Amino acid sequence: MMNKAIIDKLSDELGVSISQIEAVLTLLEEGSTIPFIARYRKEKTGNLDEVKIKEISDVYNYQLNLLEKKENTIKLIEEKGMLTEDVKNAIMAANKLVEVDEIYKPYKEGKKTKASIAIEMGLEPLAKILMSFPTRGDIHELTSKYDMEESVALENAQYIISEWIANNAFYKNSSKNYIFNTGYIVTKKKKTAKDDEATYEMYYDFKDKIKFIKNYRVLAINRGEKEKVLSVKLEYDNYEIYNYLRSKIIKNEESFSVLYVENALKDALKRLMLPSIERLIRSDLTDASEETAIKTFSMNLENMLMTSPIKGSRVLGFDPAFRTGCKLAVLDENGNVLDIAVIYPTEPKKDYEGSKKKVLELIDKYKIDLIAIGNGTASRESQEFIADVISGTSVKYTVVSEAGASVYSASKEAINEFPDLTVEKRSAISIGRRLQDPLSELIKIDPKSIGVGEYQHDVNQKELSNALDFTVMKVVNEVGVNINTASPNVLGYVSGLTKAVIKKIVDYKSKHKIESREELKKVGLKDKAYEQAIGFLRIPDGLNPLDRTRIHPESYEVVKKVLNELNLDINLFGSSQFNDVLEKANSKSISEKIASDEYTVKDIIDELKHPGRDIREDVNAPVFRSDVLDIKDLKPGMKLTGTVRNVTSFGAFIDIGLHDDGFVHISKMSKAFVKCPSDVVSAGDVVDCYVIEVLENKNKVSLTFIQE
Question: Which residues pair with 397 in a beta bridge?
Fold first, then answer.
């Protein structure tokens, strides 16, 4: 049963209606996948996309877990006989799991707090009287009722008051907000620390406002602290916090209890509140920084996976190296391996002419159109070599990121596919295929190895893996899969398909060409799996022309009604006459006439206009070159065209044809203020940029998007 209170809270926080949230949660409970809901249940969710659906699911489940943890924590403290109303209220007011942990920390392993011991001593009535700020009587009269020394009674009563103050949600939150908004994070190099490569040099004596510190600096500081190079502390005005809380707590300045409550407040701040608040702020900074880093990684990965495929071209995959030679892989238009070779154009063998002859032979024999050169060791020298070889021909080259290629090349899948080849030769195949179909090739690799993020090793690895897997799943289902050519890796990301079902599909299509979506029911897809997966599986040359589209078979009857309403013949599917009518079609009026929802009708019309379209074709293609750029040729102000390789929180790395990427700092992206680099560019974009500074000795080039 859904939790209404949590749903109401989600609606306010996420800006989504209660009915939309309930629809999403109901569909998920019924076993629907996020891609399926986003694509085929728009009428129920109000056209929510995958990201918003996942956010609803994640936040709802987090809140359920938080509520369960609160209830369990209250129960644990109650079983220890130490639960008070203030502690219970503080737990229920917590907004994060870590806040509940902070409250429970003093009660772990049956450990009694100073306050709980004082309560057992029977001093809670004394604490309450002190907090009422009486003016009649005196302290001696109050403490004389207890069978203990006055100093002992007062000290322990103050511990009870300290805990009341520390557990007060308003006091804690106001103090936390004050520290966050006015305080500083300060780092120093530890006296005994070793940092031989000066990795953390800028943090040896560093100070920044907590409120404004950049997420990548938080992660760098965390790593430096973990490696015992840096000491980290928060600086803020303790007296301001004390004075503010005192003004809220002291109700009667004339009372004899003021001194004791003041002592309790000081104790609460020093022993309980401030250490806890500092931990929470550090935790909040880390969480926010990790979230930003993971989002950046996911965004870069999505853009990289969505890179336009180069179809219909024969490609030479070129894996650069020195000592072991450059490995070459000739691929046909479909990525099949036609030939493998090794050449030695560079040191130590330096068989330049023999290598040149071999490449020209391969180009001529296999009619190679494009060359994909890896960006690893010897890439620069390989580019110079290839530029010379292809001079005077129609062949072009481009540089392809090698990130993760070696990981794939040594994997079980690569060994199964090419058991007789070395790791390096498999890598050349991977590099070539990355140009032909980036998505199909890159999903063979652990997303964390693709190298399009920042501080990916410093963030929560489980959350990173979940986010990246979701990104791959989102892209695969958005692009769609040719069922007859898809590898098990690709099928593994298709909505609703399990490993067992994928094995059945692979075994079946190894013996039979699949002619229709309906045929897949014979393979062993159960009704739910078929419903969830089938819309994302394509059959470009199948018996039913609708099987090549993103239209779900459940809507094929709706397609017939739409075509009847427009007086169109399915046999004219794809013709200009067919499309002319569709261009003028009004999805809203048609949906009303045929009693179907507008979202489905609109999607049907869009798909009928562009049957089998690969949405990646709308994305920028790689920059192809026939010559090579030398860093010595660069001058400030020079205009260049490059491809965005990676976007971080502080800027973007641009492949401009050199061994090392150029860099555009966030401050050089626009004349207007840029909050986040991803607002300006995405990984894979082809951009014009201008040289600011060239550091030949460091092979570094500073770039700008701003034309002076």
Answer: 371, 625
**Residue tagged 């030398």 (tokens):** 630
What's the rounded Cα separation, in Å, for the pair 666 and 680? 9
**C-alpha atoms less than 13 angstroms from C-alpha of 471 in its C-beta half-sphere:** 25
Confidence of residue 555 (pLDDT cuts 50, 70, 90): very high
Cα–Cα dist 232/222, whole Å: 9
Contact of 316 with 372, CB cutoff 8 Å: yes
3-state secondary structure 25-92: HHHHHCCCCHHHHHHHCHHHHCCCCHHHHHHHHHHHHHHHHHHHHHHHHHHHHHHCCCCCHHHHHHHH
Length of the chain measured in residues: 708
pLDDT tens per residue across span 45-95: 999 999 999 999 999 999 999 999 999 999 999 988 888 888 899 999 999
Tokens of 349: 């063998």
Q: For residue 448, give the 3-state DSSP assignment.
A: helix
| pLDDT at residue 461, as a whole number | 87
DSSP single-letter state for residue 204: T
Distance CA 191, CA 294 (A): 33
Task: Give me the phi and psi of 647, to 5 degrees please.
Answer: -115, 125
CA separation for the pair 542, 544 (Å, rounded): 6
What are φ and ψ of residue 700, in 5° steps?
-115, 140
CA angle 199/203/207 to nearest 5° reads: 165
In DSSP notation, 666-688 reads GGGS-SS--S-GGGT--TT-EEE
Contact predicate 642/651, CB 8 Å: no
**pTM score:** 0.83
Report how far residue 226's alpha carbon sits from residue 228's, in angstroms, rounded to the nearest whole number. 5
Question: In Å, how far are 33, 36, 62, 364, 493 from 30, measured between CA atoms?
Answer: 9, 12, 20, 57, 20
pLDDT at residue number 402 = 82
Peptide bond before residue 348 is cis, with ω within 30 degrees of 0: yes
- Which distant-in-sequence residues (6+ apart) come within 8 Å of 470 by Cβ? 34, 50, 54, 298
State how beta strands 396-400 and 370-374 pair. parallel
Cβ atoms < 10 Å from Cβ of 182:
15
d(CA 77, CA 111) in angstroms, rounded, equals 10
CA 584/CA 97 separation, integer angstroms: 54
- Interatomic CA distance for residues 285 and 221, integer angstroms: 11
